[in-house]
Amino acid sequence: DVSVVDVWAEHIETIRTQGLILKTEQGEVRANPAAVTRVEDLATSAADLVIVFVKSGMTAAAARSAQTILGLAGRVLTLQNGLGNAETIATVVGADRVLAGTTAQGATLLGPGRIRHGGRGDTHIGRLTGPADDFCREAATILSRAGIPAIAEDAVQSLIWGKLVINVGINALTALLRFTNGQLNDHAETRELVKLAVTEAARVAAASGIRLPYDDAVEKVLAVAAATATNRSSMLQDILHGRATEIDAINGALVREGNRLGMPTPVNATLTLLIKALEKQQGICG
What we know:
alpha/beta; 10 helices; five-stranded mixed β-sheet; 286 residues; 11 strands
């Protein structure tokens, strides 16, 4: 049984009355999950797994909501962008109940109850406090059976940093330039900007003792951009819809980590400031 909780009332009402429409390359798929705007309205109060997909600024509130519906052996899974989300959830539900990871699945919100699938790839999940256990492996198996290929992993911090570096190379640039992901590969200038931002990020990761889950970070980011060519990054979607971005949890988080290590990150600092300036120009409050 799958339920959706979202504070966007129009979105939830559309799912209730018309279903959730997913547009794919093969056509449209309709799902009919239970949909509510408050966790208190869910039919269950003993969830096995709560998956958190909110923006970073709402993570703490989402964790508190998750705590109220978790079963005795339930876990909370975050596949969010950026750094710090898993740790925020852990302060609420306990680190031993947190799963974290990354997904290469991409999507664009088209409107209430309508989603376009903009990229396909593996989902990797692991425990925040140690190697994968039976619960983690079972969750990966269930996702895979549902058509979302998932792998249980031991090195979760490597996964989180690996996704962070990809976001560092794609999100801010696409938001500033109003580009789809694939357009970053179309110009020598944007490929060079990706290289500069990602090279900084990879150096900070190495200095933090993180081994990225790929050998060539720049090549990986450009490959992800190509694989999700038609997708609008989450940061671009935020800017287009007048919402606060997650820049502080992505490029901004990298800058803070660089400062902690005494490593300059001028490219990512510039991207962070440019996004913040754009938010101010559009009257968006972070």
